[in-house]
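STRUCTURE:
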C-alpha cells in the first residue's frame, strides 16, 4: 500500500485546474521549523479575534512546546505557498477569496490523504471554519480528522520559516501569499 507521502507526491504531479497551483515549495528537516512563544503571545493578544473560540486555535489546540516536540519528531516537512493577485492593498474581499482558494487546495490534499490520518500532519492557514459554531470548549470537536490547525496557532514563526525554506513571504505589491505545511 502506498504511503501518505507517496500519494501526496502523485497528487502534486497532477493537480486539477480548479485549485490554485503551488507557487513555491521546499522540503526541510522538521527540526528546523521555528517555533516560538512570541507567536503564541500574538494569538493571546487576539489580533484575529479567534483566540479561545475554536479547538484549532490557542489555547484549545494545546501547549506550543508540546506541539513543537511532537511535530519536530516527524522525518520530513513539505512547506508550500499559493500566491494571489489583489486589486490593491485594501482588497479585503480579494484576500478572503484568496484564503478560501488556498483552503480548497488544502482540502483537496486532505481528501486524498484522509485514509492516512495519524501518519502525517497537515497545518494550514487561518482558523478552522468547518462548523458555523465551534463546540469549543463545551464539547469535543465534531470533525477532529478534518479540523486543521494553522501554523501560527502551533507557535510557528512563518516569516522565519519562509527564510529557512528559501520561500518568499511576500511576493510583491498587490498580492497575498498563504502558507501550509505537511509533516511526514
Ligand atoms: S471542526 Fe467544528 S468543532 Fe472542530 S474545530 Fe472546526 S469548527 Fe470547531
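SEQUENCE:
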Amino acid at each position: 500500500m502506498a504511503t501518505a507521502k507517496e500519494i501526496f507526491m502523485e497528487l502534486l504531479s497532477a493537480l486539477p485546474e480548479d485549485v490554485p497551483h503551488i507557487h513555491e515549495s521546499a522540503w526541510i528537516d522538521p527540526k528546523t521549523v521555528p517555533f516560538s512563544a512570541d507567536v503564541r503571545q500574538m494569538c493571546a493578544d487576539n489580533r484575529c479575534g479567534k483566540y479561545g473560540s475554536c479547538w484549532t486555535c490557542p489555547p484549545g489546540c494545546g501547549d506550543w512546546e508540546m506541539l513543537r516536540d511532537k511535530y519536530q519528531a516527524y522525518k520530513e516537512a513539505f512547506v508550500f505557498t499559493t500566491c494571489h493577485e489583489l486589486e490593491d492593498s485594501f482588497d479585503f474581499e480579494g484576500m478572503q477569496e484568496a484564503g478560501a482558494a488556498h483552503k480548497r487546495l488544502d482540502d483537496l490534499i486532505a481528501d486524498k490523504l484522509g485514509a492516512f490520518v495519524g501518519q502525517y500532519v497537515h497545518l494550514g492557514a487561518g482558523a478552522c471554519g468547518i462548523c458555523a459554531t465551534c463546540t469549543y470548549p463545551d464539547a469535543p470537536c465534531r470533525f477532529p480528522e478534518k479540523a486543521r490547525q494553522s501554523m501560527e496557532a502551533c507557535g510557528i514563526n512563518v516569516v522565519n520559516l519562509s527564510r529557512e525554506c528559501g520561500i518568499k513571504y511576500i511576493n510583491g505589491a498587490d498580492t497575498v501569499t498563504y502558507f501550509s505545511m505537511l509533516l511526514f
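REMARK: DSSP finds five helices and four strands in the chain.
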